[in-house]
Amino acid sequence: MLVYGFQSILSWVQLALGVYAAVMLIDAAVRREDAYRAASKQTKGMWLIFLALATALLFILPIMSFLPIIGVIAVIVYTVDVRPALREVSGGGSGPRRGGSSSDGPYGPFNGGR
């Protein structure tokens, strides 16, 4: 009984990792090619191949085999190293706001009801 519960948990984890790998694949596909070169990372095509293989392996093979674990490592490397570098080079991201103060609201500065 316990083995079946563990397998069920692993299947949900594998599904979640596969969906996350697919989202990172889409993220890599929409980034500009020159951003990869500017961030001194591998080419866009190479990352698309890595992430596509990782996504396919996560949906095809069981998570406890060797190849999907390598795919998870590739997705993690893209997530923690390549993606932030691409966002920094592209100017996107959640950095500090430019040209506004901390009291600005969505429609302009907050004046306290004056």
Overview of this protein structure:
The structure is a single chain. By secondary structure, the chain is mainly alpha-helical. It has helices at 2-30, 33-38, 44-60, 66-90, and strands at 104-105, 108-109. Strands 1-2 form a two-stranded antiparallel sheet. β1 (104-105) and β2 (108-109) form a beta hairpin. The radius of gyration is 20 Å and the shape is flat. The N and C termini lie far apart (67 Å). 19% of the residues are buried. The model has no long low-confidence stretch (mean pLDDT 85).
Topology (elements, then pairings):
Layout: H1 2-30, H2 33-38, H3 44-60, H4 66-90, E1 104-105, E2 108-109
Antiparallel strand pairs: 1-2
Helix pairs in contact: 1-3, 1-4, 3-4
Descriptive key words:
mainly alpha, 68% helix
